[in-house]
Automatic annotation (TrEMBL):
PANTHER family, A to Z: 2-OXOGLUTARATE (2OG) AND FE(II)-DEPENDENT OXYGENASE SUPERFAMILY PROTEIN-RELATED
Keywords: Iron, Metal-binding, Oxidoreductase
Protein name: Fe2OG dioxygenase domain-containing protein
Fe2OG dioxygenase domain mapped to chain residues: 199-317
Record bears the keyword ATP-binding: no
Domain of life: Eukaryota
Length: 353
């Protein structure tokens, strides 16, 4: 199904020898694997080449696999371990940390509370949530020094080292976000530091996700998924996956969803709606979803899907930043300017109302 060499190619069309091929009539869908160490450690032509590769991928598919990203594997594994320990806490202890306000976007979200979708009408989203809620639980963490909105941390005795681990991980993800945004700036023909002052407030969201094992029959309802088809809200999403899989991206040319199979040592990065809007749709915000992987027999009548963990770092511009058509992204803006806060809070309000 895949050839994991320099990049991942997902093609629709004829198949030969177990590898997907492509017909002339159907465009291919490509998620390239890019070694970011060449950007972090090089200068001149090599650095520009990597920047161009990233921007080209974001124009075509909106997704990349990033290796050589600089976040040590033991650090990532510890974040996964502490995330798993948090979700094993008693339900009543987690519920005391419940998510309360879209302006804060912090705290625990129990199974069934969220229904990600492209719909923007609150009533429509509520109906979808009632019919087919996302089968996952999450913990949302923001910048910890915010003077207004506070993170909702568990007691240290309930989740040892959780706060310390997640604050360190949050900072490393922000630093990677800065570097990737610098590569985007270069790839768009802007000054490398163009975005620096527009993302320095760290108005991001670190989301820990737990997808419990579940009977496969529960996913057979119309519209049901572990996380429904959606695009993300901000600039970029840094996604750390376990080995279970389930993430699928939609080929924008054919509408077919194709697996973004986990590759050890890489982070999946995709463009969010605000960056697409900022770039006048030069960069593509691609629909994606999380479905259940192959199920295992539970008994003669039922099968069960395995548990899945992931960690998503949703990168946002400063909440005060005005998102208006970037230089070099067309002479006529498709969208009216909007502040980051107005856009993000509006989307969250619709999602959770």
């Amino acid at each position: 199904m895949f050839s994991l060499r320099a990049s991942i190619f997902v093609r629709t069309g004829l198949k030969s020898r177990g590898l997907a091929t492509v017909s002339d009539a159907q465009p291919s869908f490509r998620i390239p694997l890019i070694d970011f160490s060449r950007f972090r450690n090089e200068a001149g032509a090599d650095k520009i080449k990597v920047a161009n590769e990233i921007v080209s991928a974001f124009k075509e598919s909106g997704f990349i696999y990033l290796s050589g990203h600089g976040i040590p594997d033991p650090t990532i594994q510890k974040a996964f371990t502490k995330s798993a320990e948090f979700f094993r806490m008693p339900t009543d202890a987690k519920d005391k940390l419940a998510w309360e306000d879209p302006r804060s976007n912090r705290g625990y979200v129990r199974i069934g509370r969220e229904r990600v979708t492209q719909a923007t009408d609150a009533a429509e989203i509520a109906a979808l949530r009632e019919k087919a809620p996302d089968y996952k639980e999450t913990m949302e963490i923001g910048r910890d020094w915010d003077s207004v909105w506070k993170n909702r941390w568990p007691q240290e005795a309930d989740a040892p080292e959780f706060k310390h681990t997640m604050l360190g991980f949050f900072q490393l993800c922000h630093e990677l976000h800065v570097q990737v945004m610098r590569s985007i700036a270069i790839g768009l023909g802007l000054e490398e530091s163009f975005f620096d002052a527009k993302i320095q407030d760290q108005c991001h969201n670190l989301r820990l996700l737990s997808y419990p094992p579940m009977k496969r029959a529960l996913l057979d309802n119309e519209g049901q998924a572990r996380a429904g088809s959606h695009s993300d809200y901000g600039t970029l999403t840094l996604l750390f996956q376990d080995s279970v899989g389930g993430l699928e991206a939609q080929n924008p040319h054919t509408g077919v969803f194709v697996p973004a199979t986990p590759i050890p040592g890489t982070i999946v990065i995709n463009v969010g709606d605000l960056l697409a809007r900022w770039s006048n749709d030069v960069l593509r915000s691609t629909l994606h979803r999380v479905v259940a992987p192959a199920a295992k027999p539970l008994n003669a009548q039922e099968v069960i899907t395995p548990a899945r963990q992931s960690i998503a770092f949703f990168c946002n511009p400063n909440f005060s930043a005005e998102i208006a058509c970037l230089p070099n992204c067309g002479s006529e803006a498709k969208y009216q300017p909007i502040s980051t806060e107005a856009y993000i809070v509006g989307r969250l309000t619709s999602t959770y109302s």
